[in-house]
Specification:
There is one protein chain. By secondary structure, this protein is α/β, with parallel strands linked by helices. It has helices at 14-24, 48-54, 89-97, 108-116; strands at residues 31-35, 56-61, 78-81. A three-stranded parallel beta sheet has the order 1-2-3. Helix 2 links the parallel strand 1 (31-35) and strand 2. Helix 1 (14-24) packs parallel to helix 2 (48-54). The radius of gyration is 16 Å and the shape is globular.
Length: 121
C-alpha cells in the first residue's frame, strides 16, 4: 500500500503514480491488477501506451463476465480466473460514503487504514 496519490493535488493518473513508484523502487517490477470489465476501457486511459510499457496488466476474469477470445488475445496481459465475489472498488467507496460497514469485504488492516485516514468519506 502506498499513499503516493495523496501527496498530489488535482487529477491522479495511473501513469504518474507508476512513474513515481518506479523512481522510488527502480529494481522492482510492477503489475497492475484490473477486473475483466476494464479491459475494453483501457484504451481510454491517459497515456495508456506508455503505461503498458511500465507495468504488466493482470486481468482478473469474473465468472459471470468471461472475456471473449478476442479480448484475451493481448499477449502483454496475464489472465487469471477468480472465484465469484460480487464486489467492486466502487461498492467499497459507496458503502464508506454511506457509513455502511466494509468489515469482511477487505483485509482488516486495509479496512482500518481506510477508516483511520477518512478515505472515501
Amino acid at each position: 500500500m502506498s499513499d503516493v496519490e495523496f501527496e498530489r493535488s488535482g487529477p491522479s493518473y495511473t501513469i504518474d503514480t507508476i512513474a513515481k513508484l518506479q523512481r522510488a523502487y527502480p529494481d522492482d517490477t510492477f503489475f497492475f491488477i484490473i477486473g475483466g470489465d476494464m479491459v475494453n476501457q483501457l484504451e481510454d486511459w491517459y497515456k495508456i501506451e506508455q503505461l503498458k510499457k511500465l507495468v504488466t496488466f493482470i486481468v482478473a476474469e469474473r465468472p459471470n463476465d468471461p472475456l471473449s477470445h478476442k479480448q484475451k488475445m493481448n499477449p502483454a496481459f496475464i489472465y487469471v480466473s477468480i472465484p465469484q465475489l460480487d464486489l467492486s472498488s466502487s461498492t467499497i467507496r459507496e458503502r464508506v460514503k454511506l457509513n455502511q460497514s466494509i468489515r469482511y469485504l477487505l483485509p482488516e488492516n486495509v479496512r482500518v487504514f481506510v477508516k483511520e485516514h477518512g478515505l472515501y468519506e
